[in-house]
Structures are given as C-alpha cells and as structure tokens.
Amino acid sequence: MQLIRVTGYQDQISAIVQNADAHLGRPETGSYGPMERSFMESRLRKTREIYQGLMDVEPVFYPSRGIRAFVDNPVTDCCCLFILLLAVFQILTAERQNELIILSKTTCRGRRAHGIVKALALGIVCAFVTVLLITESILVIGSIYPFLSLMHPIQSVFSYCALRVNILGYLCIYMVIKMLFYLLCTAVFYFVCCLLRKVIPIFLILAGTTGLLLYLYMSISENSYLAPLKTMNPIAFGRAGALLERYQCVNVFGIAVNKLILYAGICGVLALLFFAAAVKVFALSYEKNIVSDRRSFFDRKKRWSVGLIRHECYKTFISQKIIYVLIFAGFFAWLLYTPFGWNGLSLSEVFYYRYSEAVKGAYTDEIDEFIRQNRETVYTGMTQPGLEEGQLITYNAMLEALTWMSEYAAYLSDHEDSYYIYNQGYTALTGGNGVVNRQNIMTSIVMYAFAAVCFVLTVSIDYQHGENRLIHSTVKGRRAYIGSKMLIGMLIAAVLLCMFWLPQLVGTLRLWGTEFIFAPAYSLQHLDGIWGGISIFTYLCLKYMGKYMMLLGVMVFSYLLERKVKSSVTAIVWVCAVVEIPLVVMLLN
Question: Which residues constitute the domain of residue 91?
C-alpha cells in the first residue's frame, strides 16, 4: 500500500487540484449563506494553491511503521502529562513540605513575583520533559522499526501532508506542537491547583473534565451540529499527527484557517492566559496556619472521643471527606457495571449451546458418539439436492458448532474427571473472554485511581493538621496508631472491591447460572495450566482474594509513600503513575 501511494503520488495531487478546480464555482449555485459560501471558496482556493506547490515533490519508498507508531503515541502522552502534573504539585507544595511556608505569606506583590517564577520554572520543565520523552520515543521505536533516513520528503510517509519539509523537519514541527499542547495542560494544572488547593476537589475536577472531554471527542461525529465540541476540543489540540497528516481548515467568520496554525495559536494564547490567571490567584491567596484555632462542634466532639479506631474512622471518613470519594466511586462503578449476558451470539454459537445442553456433565465416551452422529446428520442434510442458501448457512453453522465440540471433547479426554461445561459466564469471570478482559482492565484503572486517593488521604490528614506529632509518642502508641490505619485501609479496600467487582460477579452468575461450579477448573480450556483439582468456585474465590490483596498492596505502598513525601497530592500522582500506567499499556495493547 505504501509503495502504491508513492508511485501514484503525482496522480493523487493532480486529483486533489482538479477536484478543487471543479468545485470552486459550485457554491455559488447552492443554497448556502454568504459566510458559508465564503468559507468553502476560501478553503478550495487555499487547498488548490498548497497542493499545486507540492506537484514537484518526489517521494521515495520509505518504511512508515516507525513514524506512524511514533506519532500521537498515547503512552508518551500519558507519561508526559503524569510527570507535568507531578511537577505542578511538587512546585506548589515544596514550601509546605520543607516548612518554608512563610515564603508564601509575604505581600501580594511578593507572592506575584513568586508565582511568576513558578510559572517560568514549569515552562522550562515542560520543554525539557517534552524533548526528553519524544527523544526517548524516537530511540525506542527506532530500535524496533529503524528509521532509514530523515532527509526524505515527509510525503514518503504521509502522502497528503501539506508541508514542504523532510522527515526531520516534520519531527521538529511535531515536537513544537506537542510542546505547546503540554504547556497548555501544565498551565491548566497550575491554575486548578492554585485555585482549589484541596486534594479531593482537584482530583474530581481533573478526572471529571478529562473524562468529559474524551467522551465528547470520541462520541461526536465531525458532521454533527455538535462538531465544534470535537474540533475545538483540547484533546484535538494534542493530536499533532492528525493535524500534520493532511491540510484541514476551520471556518473563522467565513475565512478558511488552517487547523495547524489555529490550534498552535490557541494553545499558546490559552497557556499564557491560564498562567496569568494562576499567578493572579496565587498572589491574592493566603496560607492558613497548619493548626487552626477554630473548632467546630464536630471537632470539639472529636476531642472527647477515647476510642482510637472510632476516632481515626471519624477523621478519615468525615473530616477528610473520604465518604464523598466512596460515593463518587460507587457512581463510577454503577456506570461500569456490565454483566456478561446472552447478547451478540452468532448462529454457530447458538447451535453450540443447543448441542452442549444435551451432553453437559461429566465427560464420557458418549459425548464423542453424540458428536459423530450429529455430524453425519449434518453431512446428510448438506448433500440433499435443491438445497437453498439459507439452509446451507444453517448447516455450515451446525458443522462449525460440532467442530468446536469435537475440539473441546479432545481436550477433555486428556484430563481425568473433567466436565463438559458450556457456561460463558464462567469463561468471562475466569479471564477467557478478551472483550470482558478489556472491560475488566478499564474497571481496574478506575478502581485503583479511587483507591490511591482514599489510601493517601487516610494518612495525610495527620500531616495536614500537624497531628503527626502525636505519632512520635511511645512504641505502644505508634503500634496502635498504625494498626488503626491498617484496619481502616482494609475496610476501604473491601468497600471498593464490593462496589466494583461484586455486582459483575453476581450479575453474570445470575444470568448464566451456577451449574457445575464445583467441577474441576481445568474443565475450562483456558484454565489448562491450573494445578491440582481445584474447582471453578475455588478459582473464583482465589481470583477475588487476589484482587483484594492487590488493593492491600496499593494501600501499603500509599502509606509508605505518603510518609516519605508528606504531600498527599504528590503521593496520589506517584501511586497512580506506578499502578495505572501498566494497566493503560495493557489496555492499549
């Protein structure tokens, strides 16, 4: 395909120019408004001029998999945004962590200068991280798909690219556009953190806004009347490869403006505006004392408590408002609840189910005889004269179902005491369905994000209010304190596990039934390597116990990290980076 594009390049460009010439006069005859007609004429005219200037470009055959894998790589974007978010949190909380908060409690003019310096530092960090990660991506992808030469015209890879540059120039322009997008994201992070200064609101605002923008970008068609929510979406700004791949225009008051120029300008202007707003907020804000003298009625009641666990539960769920985070997590769990049902079965799968119902149970030689007899019946029906097309499709589906049964029976014959089971619910719950596995990874990503927030905030409240001094008492007191935190973390882990995984388990088993749930787990083909003779029920128990242990592992990691960095926001970002990025890579692959 790439060779055809290169050899037919001149014909492709000529076709674009001729098409623009042919349509240039047509908007006058259509029922268009003046502004719309002006835009169409301007777009056609500019398209013709740009592609006429590319007529003398001579692309060569160039392996394009490396460049295409490098452009708009979501893993690079996720890593870069994680690092920039962490940099914003770190640069805003550095004084608080090192007990230099007095530096931010000067005059408004002093805080303004301080905020400007922070913004400049973030800009430098953004440029450094962008160059570093993009260079790393080039080296890693280049080791897999070597770049033969960077001096060839970019049209050797992207035939419709309207830039008269070589591949090296394309990569430089790509890096600049990405840098502007990352700078905009950094400015937004800086503004939100300066404005809110609370962990839970920052987390909810960033997560909710990102989810909404991604949903609008993925779900809205370019032909819809809501297309501006897609084309002017900040996520579209970050897709530099899509902007550079072909010449695209946007209607700006009847004038066709290149998306590349428009988006770059918008990113730069918005980044400056958000940085200016963040500096303004930072200059006008003030820092509260670590230990406030004001006590509400509930705070006074908290001091009267003598039960350590009850006291810590109150601090965690009420004072730290983790109860709201769990309610929000329950809402997301409800949105992600998708029990695997009977929808979407093909004709072959329907026959497979019908045949399997007749032989389900302990495996015997009668199953092979049943398959042989039904296969002979199908062959006899297929050899009848005057067979219609619909009947032939049915017989082929039956034959395919019998072939699956034969393969399954051959597998069961090698395993003693195995059972012939047709239960797609068991298959989905034990990891044998690829579509369900992707849904489970997405569910895990959301669950671990909420787990990181809950676990970090459970410990951070002591550092936020200066109560960490109480920890440095006797050994017995510290042991009781740590024990109470572990019990609260185990409770939170159990709540999250029940909210995200229990509905899926119960809903799927309700739809498919629990027949033969105590049969050996290796009766399911994808569980061939299961040791011993554990049952499907035992396997499910171990699987969900493993999920709970993973949550406890995240809890311990969160506790230790928060104790080290003493910044809840920084700890949350680090925990999400360590736990979420591998899951995102698994989901993308």
Answer: 69-284
